[in-house]
Amino acid sequence: MLQTYLKTAFRSLVKNRKHSLLNILGLSVALGACIIVFLVIQYETSYDKHLKNYKNIYQVVTKDVDAEGEHYTSGVPFPSVKYLRQDFPQYTFTELMQNSEIQVTIKTDTAPATGKKFYEKTGMFYGEPELLQMFEVKFLVGNKDVLKDVSSVALSRSTAEKYFGNWNNAIGKRINLNNSDHDLQVAAIFEDVPQNSDFPFKMIASYVEFIAHDSSNWPINDWGSNTSNHQVYMLLPNQQNTIAINDQLNLFEKKYNTDNKQSTRTHFLQPLRKIHFDDRLENNGDHVTTKTSLYTLIFVGLLVILMACINFVNLSTALAITRSKEVGIRKVMGSSKTQLRTQVFIEAALVVSTAVIIGAWLSWFALPYVKRITSAQGELNLFNAGSIIFMLSIAIVATILSGIYPAFIMGKFKPVEAIKNKINTSKVGSISLRRALVVLQFSFSQIFIIATIIAVSQMNFIRTADLGFNKESVLMLQLNADSATHSRLKAFKNELMARNDVKQVSFAFDAPSSENTWASNFAFDKMEDRGFEVNLKFGDENYATTYGLELMAGRFYGASDTCREYVVNETFVKKTGFKGPQDAIGKLFRLGGRRPMPVVGVVKDFKQQSLREAVAPIAISPKIKYYQSAGIKLSGKNLLASNKEIQVIWDKYFPEYVYNSSFLNESINRYYKQEQRLSLLYKVYAALAIFISCLGLYGLVSFLVVQKTKEVGIRKVLGASVQSLVYLFSKEFTILIFIAFILAAPAAWYLMHTWLNDFAYRIEIGAWVFIIAILTSASIAWITVGYKALRAALANPIKSIRTE
Prior knowledge:
3 domains; 13-stranded mixed sheet; 26 strands; about 50% helix
């Protein structure tokens, strides 16, 4: 019996190959898009699940409250670990310190000072033996005891191969960090951490090594300071209730921070399973993916597959009229409703199965490009247990959604009416239902179109927004913050300034806009601590001219290696209660417990982070010990050539350091990687939605053309023009598109308004967005309808009238 069903279904699909091709094409594209969405979601939700204790590991995180609201960080003060172990002796804690953006020099016996140099962005991780056990680091050579030795280091397999050619040759070799006077010996090699991990370990050394040789610039004994580089993790037994622990952590800071009993800082446990999706906290890995972005992907995938199933219904019911005689004969020969409906489902299953195979091939072809439109930057495996189950599930669901309505309709045909071709609109279901389906389809496509227009407009706004400083043609160099480097800065700068293509040079902790956030409590004017923090920027006397900061009042401070004067921004002046910038000049400013210094200038607000954050109060001062970057303002004529020539000068003055350069505007653009990918994702899926909508529209037009064949013939005999007949079909669909727009516009506005709320600086959603969307939809629909309508209008009226 099944063989007969399959043979008949295949013959029917071949006979009606035009409709079959449209169905397969629409479903293939939609299923391919859904498979990609599934793979991305599968990858993002797999983070850290390779760990056996994935559900039992928690991070101790921090919440600070001030007049500005709540602020979260993944770090805890350095002194807290001792007391966490004291208060919770029954649990396992481990400390993790990350010193990022370091230089590694390979030391050799023959040329110890001129070994190979590497720049490592993720830097060195310092930890305790419990860290390696908790995060299940798998050793090829050595074991977790390597972190008991102050001078030993463990390297990942790929890192060891990069440094020494073969990881087997790495054991016993020495490396040096940032040209310090202390080497580390490679004592262990571990397997590379999976890509879907928030802990990109490449080099791990003992926490004791950090305290002994690398802690001088960190607030080791300060309860008041905090950094996201220093993190603490906790391993709890299965099914452990965290409520009681969080209650204790709530009071932990007040209990032990005796210097500040009024502290509003609290701590709480964050499950490891939530870290990857919590954008409040800094992440060790490459990115944090929000749950909202995953829900958006799921929503997009559902819309696309629903649109394809709607196409199937429209095309199948349009075809049902032409198959009425076949159905009538089957019923006369004894076929039951169940057999007829089974036949329709078998045909739907054949179409869907073919579409799944083609869709899988399309998704395989598209996988190399997925990184450009989604946050999943690791390798996506098309054929795994989860994806295969998903493909089978989506095939079954699509078969049911696509086949149930046509099967129900065709099973109701009466044999006599079917054989005589008396089946009309009322017999194949109301035309209103198909109109509703087309309205639904175009609503979906218009949501995509509106979302695309708004996302692209916001990204254009970001690219052209006034940041309050000049980001163009500024070359940023990474410096080492040591006295040897600082002693050569003046000579390095003089040689740079002698070049015609260099306008200005400034040494600073960072650029006006960077991912660094350094904030502190402060006192101002009457020397009373304020209820909010101030962001800190450290730069030399050329900081303002190099980056184009605009002075609103007073002057910029003069040349100095230490802090003697401060410059603040407009927001600082407003938040401290002064009417204007001039009123702040001459007032005393005290940072933390330091000596008060006068404010000598006020600069116009500039964006120190992305446009998602509002401008914070800022204080700028010189402090050479913190200078870690050089900003070089170029003439902009040939930036790449200038970069190469500046590298020659760098190698002359700093031969022991890797030349690490980037352009400031490129660094700022990286803030918006996720938004740029989302914008591109909307473009791609909007194009798919429009394509699938056009197929659905074609299906409904095909249905109407069959229904109105005799009417068109009579109209032509009575003198109707081709234009009027095309208008006859186009008018109805234009109305449907406007109805779809009325439904889509509020939904799209709400979705994109919510998305834009993540930006402190954003575009306004104007009427022009919706005008473009409706004109685009209408134009596409007219082109689609016009083709089929024109063919019907040009048909021989005599043949049309004779059509039964």
